[in-house]
Amino acid sequence: MHSPSLRLIAAPYTPFHADGSLNAAIVPQQVELLTAGGVDGAFICGTTGESMSLTIDERIELVKRWVDAAAGQLPVIVHVGHTALADCRTLAAHAHEIGATAIAAMAPFFAKPATVEDLVAFCAEVASAAPGLPFYYYHIPSMTNVNFAMVDFLRAAAGKIPTLAGLKYSHNDLYDLGACLRMDNGRHEILFGSDQILVSALALGVRGAVGSTYNFIAPLYRRIEQALAAGDVETAAREQARSMEFVATCLKFGPAAFAAGKAVMKAAGVDCGPVRSPLRQLSEEQYEQLVDELVRIGFFGDCSRVPEAKATAVKEQNSMPL
């Protein structure tokens, strides 16, 4: 397994059949794609994984499939967040029982915590259901509308969440991010969750990242890491710009790029099926438009694995100036 200084963790898509039912049989193909890309783990049942559109039973089945398929190949971090504390604890206990690597939880987003202390108390209850697993608080205010400063969360959690390992930080507040990285001499692991500005987080000292684009273009982010390590800021910025262009391309096809991301998985050779309602699947015409755009921006040159069906497109794009 690749062991660079940057821990790069993919956030996989949840595979569905055409009728919208769970298609967990695809998971081994996802594991194969991730290992081919050289990532260091999988963060499952998160935002990219449409976790809040899954039933508890589906999440339990999916986690088991991932832990079984990834055994000996990839560490598996399980997102166990839910609006009901009891369900969070059920998911956490299950992850602990079957041998997941760690758990994470975002804030409940309907009845929301009013204070940092309330959030810490909620997380402590979740973490205590899996006492042998590291716990990460999943900070994603764009989805939860819970937006406390995370440096305040870490201070308030001291001594109250014994298994607290750190944060999954899916936000663009670089000032708060830097404060979290410096706190207690860097004791907490901060897994950065905004792929398109990873270079900024690396400059601040981030050494771990979780993101959806690592499913298919992890090699691009390795080049960013290597360029920064060599002091080549210009190359790092240029490679990051490629990531930004890819994300912007996906966002043309819908907010948060869920459907586009699954379409990209299909183009990369692992068909994870449709998204769940109320998200809207891409039409065949939109899919072809997206693939054409990916060819135009050189996506398949960065992709971890290119299926035979795309060989012609790759050959054509490799003859184009970047």
Q: Would you write up a description of this structure?
A:
- The chain is an alpha/beta fold.
- The chain has a domain at 7-230: Alpha-Beta Barrel (TIM Barrel), CATH 3.20.20.70.
- Helices cover 46% and strands 11% of the residues.
- Strands 1-2-3-4-5-6-7-8 form an 8-stranded parallel barrel, surrounded by 5 helices.
- It is globular.
- The two termini are 31 Å apart.
- 44% of the residues are buried.
Name some characteristics of this structure.
TIM Barrel; 322 residues; alpha/beta; 8-stranded parallel barrel; disordered C terminus; 11% strand; globular; 14 helices
Summarize the entry for a quick read:
This protein is an alpha/beta fold. It has helices spanning 27-37, 56-70, 85-98, 116-128, 141-144, 150-157, 174-182, 198-204, 218-229, 233-251, 258-267, 284-297, 299-302, 311-318, and strands spanning 7-10, 41-44, 76-79, 102-106, 135-139, 164-169, 189-192, 208-211. The longest helix has 19 residues, at 233-251.
Q: In what order do the strands lie side by side in the largest sheet? A: 1-2-3-4-5-6-7-8
CATH topology (level 3) name of one domain: TIM Barrel
- Please identify the structural class as seen in this structure: alpha/beta
Q: If you compute it from the alpha carbons, what radius of gyration comes out, rounded to the nearest whole angstrom?
A: 19 Å
Name of the CATH first level of one domain: Alpha Beta
What string, H for helix and E for strand, traces the elements in order?
EHEHEHEHEHHEHEHEHHHHHH
CATH 2nd-level architecture of one domain:
Alpha-Beta Barrel
**Shape, per Cα inertia axes:** globular
Q: Uncertain regions: pLDDT < 50 for 5+ in a row?
A: 308-322
